């Protein structure tokens, strides 16, 4: 059997891998680790035949990810890939191939490929859970609810006018902080990366509970904070963190539970997030974060499809 999973990736795919770790450990109860592919080879990771290494790459040609996969092959690991291009090098290297079927992604910044990577990782975790004969009721309920995701994403897209209004508030900022907890923490990283990539506005993503260990020193009335605050088990903790932010006079723009009256009081604006079970939350949260980065970039006059200094497929190490 497989004792551990190593998810290796770069950039946006690495953020998907962080969500994947959460899904695999919590849903399938399998030990999972996440590595930057560019760092994986240089720390002599403990690998063996009971390790599954999953290379996550939109193009299937990312040089660092392919190098990590080849090292894993040499160490006797089993290999899988989550890839958007059929017959790409990553697919040819892997024993197991999970195709994301997102279709060609033309813009340099990854959007729909990221969303479909999250779906593929959820499918992997649920299949693993089922193979281990774990309680089937939750699996079945999640699969049924996942079938409604297209409608949830349409609902998220329908918030474009509200998102544009938030973008108008952010466009003149010089920094931004994205905060979230739990399975949405990687989405804070991804939201910040999208803003950096296409609008050239400096942003950081942080676990909301870590803010007090340093970043809170940065906050003032000119430092906007984007907080992911969906309904659910961590809602109260995120609200407490938002209260800390507001006490430092920083403006808060929330993506979250529109029914939470305290959130509405604290935030300058609340972009509604569809209420979904926690494993689906990253998928629906991705869309407003992507739209927000897009709207800010357009207002700042940036080329959304071809950001400076970036290439769609990074084929050098």
Question: Could you characterize the architecture of this molecule?
Answer:
By secondary structure, this protein is of the alpha/beta class. The protein folds into two domains: 140 residues, Rossmann fold (3-Layer(aba) Sandwich); 147 residues, Glucose-6-phosphate isomerase like protein, domain 1 (Rossmann fold). The protein contains twelve helices and ten strands. The strands form two sheets. It has a five-stranded parallel beta sheet, sandwiched between helices. Strands 7-6-8-9-10 form a five-stranded parallel beta sheet, sandwiched between helices. Helix 11 links the parallel strand 9 and strand 10. Helix 1 runs parallel beside helix 5, helix 1 packs antiparallel against helix 9 and helix 9 packs parallel to helix 12. It is globular. The model has no long low-confidence stretch (mean pLDDT 93).
């Amino acid at each position: 059997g497989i004792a551990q999973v190593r998810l290796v990736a770069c950039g946006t795919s690495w953020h998907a891998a962080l969500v994947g770790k959460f899904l695999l450990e919590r849903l399938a109860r399998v030990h999972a680790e996440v590595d930057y592919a560019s760092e994986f080879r240089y720390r002599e990771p403990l690998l063996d035949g009971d390790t599954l290494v999953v290379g996550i790459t939109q193009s299937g040609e990312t040089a660092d990810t392919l190098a990590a996969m080849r090292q894993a092959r040499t160490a006797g690991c089993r290999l899988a890939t989550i890839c958007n291009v059929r017959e790409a090098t990553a697919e040819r290297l892997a024993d197991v191939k999970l195709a994301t079927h997102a279709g060609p992604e033309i813009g340099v910044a990854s959007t729909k490929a990221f969303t479909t990577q999250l779906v593929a990782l959820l499918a992997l975790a649920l299949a693993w859970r089922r193979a281990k004969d774990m309680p089937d009721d939750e699996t079945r309920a999640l699969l049924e609810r996942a079938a409604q995701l297209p409608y949830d994403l349409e609902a998220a897209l329908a918030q474009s006018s509200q998102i544009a209004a938030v973008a108008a508030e952010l466009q003149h900022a010089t920094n931004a902080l994205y905060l979230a907890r739990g399975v949405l923490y990687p989405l804070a990283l991804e939201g910040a990366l999208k803003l950096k990539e296409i609008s050239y506005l400096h942003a950081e993503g942080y676990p909301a509970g870590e803010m007090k260990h340093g970043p809170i020193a940065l906050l003032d009335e000119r430092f906007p904070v984007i907080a992911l605050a969906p309904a659910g088990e961590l809602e109260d903790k995120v609200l407490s963190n938002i209260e800390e932010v507001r006490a430092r006079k920083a403006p808060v723009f929330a993506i979250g539970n529109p029914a939470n009256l305290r959130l509405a009081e604290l935030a300058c604006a609340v972009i509604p997030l569809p209420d979904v079970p926690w494993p689906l939350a990253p998928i629906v949260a991705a869309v407003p974060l992507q739209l927000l980065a897009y709207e800010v970039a357009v207002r700042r006059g940036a080329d959304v499809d071809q950001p400076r200094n970036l290439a769609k497929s990074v084929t050098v190490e």
